[in-house]
Write a structure and sequence with these properties.
Elements: H1 5-15, E1 20-25, E2 32-38, H2 47-57, E3 68-74
Parallel strand pairs: 2-3
Antiparallel strand pairs: 1-2
Helix pairs in contact: 1-2
């Protein structure tokens, strides 16, 4: 079962409440998304660590309900 953008955003917001999130459905199939996430939680963290925070927020749905998520992450400013 595919995930809706609002569900992806809600999961990320639950873990990173200050996050500014933009989600784009890349293929129109509900399985392939691109997300831009900006959060203070990313300050001082490497890109890999930032992505790990987002993937952890998705609570194991990557590779199952959510097939692909292209991420762009950054701290504000």
């Amino acid at each position: 079962m595919a995930m809706q953008p609002a569900e992806i955003e809600a999961l990320i917001k639950a873990a990173l409440p200050d996050a500014q999130i933009t989600i784009e459905d890349l293929a129109g199939d509900g399985d392939h998304y691109a997300a831009t996430v900006v959060s203070d939680a990313f300050k001082g963290k490497s890109r890999v660590q930032q992505h790990q925070l987002v993937y952890a927020a998705l609570r194991g749905r990557m590779g199952g309900e959510l097939h692909a998520l292209a991420l762009q992450t950054s701290a504000p400013g």
